[in-house]
Amino acid sequence: MTDRPSAVRTGRMDGRKRRWRQHKIDRREELVDGTLAAVRVRGSTAGMDEIAAEIGVSKTVLYRYFSDKNDLVRATMQRFIETTLMPKVYGAISLDADEYQLVRSALAEYVGTVDEDPEVYRFIMGNGSADQSSLAEFERLFAEVVAAVITDRATEKGIDTEGAMLWSYVLVGGIQLATHWWTTHKTMDREQVIDYLTMMTWSAIEGMARAGGSRAAFAAQPHVLPDPPQS
User: Fold this and answer.
1) How far apart are alpha carbons 183 and 158 in whole angstroms?
2) Which of 45, 134, 170, 222 is 20 to 30 A removed from 128 (C-alpha atoms)?
3) What global pTM score does this model have?
4) DSSP letters along 56-83, please?
5) pLDDT 10s digits, 66-105
6) What is the Cα–Cα distance from 162 to 211, expressed in whole angstroms?
């Protein structure tokens, strides 16, 4: 070794380090996938012992790749958002459809994904271990996508889009909070939830469009609740 050029020795050591880092990344991803499967079987309250047993590894292995349960929950949240939740929402928002159908499709995908994978959703969002930075990143990405769609559609119609980012955060935050509440208070079925969320969201968008996106125009309008339609 001492007779070999230092550049050769350094290159080989760097190569081993890169392979080891890649191995850790790959192994973490495998364990995250295993955690998702374990939570679907054991439930959202599964602890590290149960998760390890379901995956078929020792708890020591989990702690070798994750510093604690919060670290595992954080990685699981990122995987679920990146590979399951956001692709479905992106797909719905990207449809070649009118504005109302885009709204309803996106809401249906979001609520449906949560409803079809409730244990995973509760594990990453509802067990007190949710990583706020990952959650904030998800909200930012979601809001930016919604803002882009609002800006694109509104610009075509000559609507002022200065408030688009703010509107998007209001919509995303409200939908997320309402859906989270519904996962633990199943007082209505999925279609009812989608209907009510669509009613609220569309009414907000329609109101902004009616004012042309202008604060001044909105403030100048009469604001009186209409009488309900006669049955």
Assistant:
1) 39
2) 170
3) 0.82
4) TS-HHHHHHH-SSHHHHHHHHHHHHIII
5) 999 889 998 999 899 889 988 998 888 888 889 999 999 9
6) 13
